[in-house]
Amino acid sequence: MSSILVAEDLSAVGGISLSAALPVLTAMDYQVAALPTSLLSTHTSGYGRPAVADLSQWLPQTFAHWTQAQLEFKQALIGYVGSVELCYQLVGYLQQQPLALLVVDPVLGDLGELYSGFDQAYVQAMRDLVKSADVILPNVTEASLLTGQTYQAQPALLPMLTALQALLKPGATAVITDVIQDQQIGCAWLVAGKVQFVGQPRLPGHYNGTGDTLAAVITGLLGRGWSLTRSLTLAMQWLHLAVTETLSAQRTDERQGVALGALIRAIGSLA
Asked: Tens digit of pLDDT for each residue in 65-88?
């Protein structure tokens, strides 16, 4: 069983971020070190203003304890971080680890806007953080913010991906995760200067946590040695299963994350 560090927010209610990543990566036979970068009573969509715990002292103490305990991680996934200071603390801690894979989902915003509480200093901190990544998974908004390009819902992919690649270390890959093409939604990235795309049919509705779930699946597959193309293809197929299951369940509370039963069964079939 491989160990993996997952650093992102934890909402007690809502089924997103760490709440989604933990069951997915556990099903993929990882021992997960769950590092909540922020602790909330609910996620921020539809529940009103959540109660938020201040972890600014606990997080560096955790890094110090883990170092003292000689814990090591070869894979890591970073999602929502939340502060400039913590971005740099994470970089400093991960530089001490024997990482073979670092995936960063550079959570900054959506629908052309920065999330509340973020500013250009935070965007710059995220630019610095992704320099350490092997794979980054921005949505179109985040790709625009990282590269300084004007947001378009359906951007020209080649120049945007080329600009993203320029932010990364040699050999790393930028993948835009919410690209829309021909009634499909999926992932786009570059191979030898040419845009690649894998997608699934778009389904109606909005579902919290799909990006978090997708990032966890992609990271888990890459960590198990699957190629990027195969990992993205399977991840999109499995996310489609999750959204289909969520639709079929006819949930009365749309604020919850996607259903994970069919996705986790698909993971089990791969073992």
From this structure: 999 999 999 999 999 999 999 999
- Note whether 207 and 168 are within 8 A (CB): no
Structure tokens at 251: 């949930």
* Whether pLDDT at 271 is above 80: no
Number of Cβ atoms within 10 Å of the Cβ of 55: 20
Instruction: Report the run of H or E that residue 6 belongs to, with start and end.
Output: strand 2-11
pLDDT in tens, 194-235: 999 999 999 988 888 899 999 999 999 999 999 999 999 999
Residues contacting 135, CB < 8 A, separation 6+:
101, 102, 103, 104, 172, 173, 174, 175, 218, 219, 222, 228
Q: What is the pTM of this model?
A: 0.96
pLDDT (tens digit, 9 = 90+) per residue, 143-169?
999 999 999 999 999 999 999 999 999
Residue 113: strand pairing partners: 110
Q: For residues 182-209, b (16+ Cβ closer than 10 Å) or e, as one string?
A: eeebbbbbbeeeebbebbbeeeeeebbb
| Cα separation, 22 vs 7, whole angstroms | 11
**Residues 120/94, Cβ–Cβ less than 8 Å:** no
